[in-house]
Structure prediction request, 146 residues.
Amino acid sequence: MDWNASTLWWIAGGVLVAAELASGTFYLLMLALGCTAGALAAHFGLALSAQIVAAAFVGGGATAAWHFKRFRAPTTAPVEANRDANLDIGQTLEVAQWQPDGTARASYRGALWSVRHAGGGAPQPGEQVIVAVQGNVLSVRPAAGA
Prediction:
């Protein structure tokens, strides 16, 4: 069976897409775009060296562009303190009494939770805002009005 160069480029691109689906590495899709450029160059009848240059230029350029886009993107808060990942962040609860080590037990959502003081200074009883959830421990700081 005699395969032309464009077929080989399309197969290489398909393998890269399959590898990306298996690994979740988005950069492989950028390299698959490079293989697509190589296949299109082959369809236009360009020499093998021009196909390789097109694949390298498009694949490498797309990879570099994606890398710089991710590098410049703002970082998100860790999952334990990210309101998008944990809807308890920002909710309030009432702490009646603090232990000397900055911990307490408080009722929240119908259950008794361990609470850790995350604000500055000595913890004061009263309304607290949840700033992070670490396992079954709520990190809190005093509410703005308290």
Q: What stands out?
A: The two ends are 79 Å apart (CA to CA). Residues 6 and 39 are 4 Å apart (CA to CA). Residues 48-72 form the longest helix (25 residues). The chain has a mean pLDDT of 90.
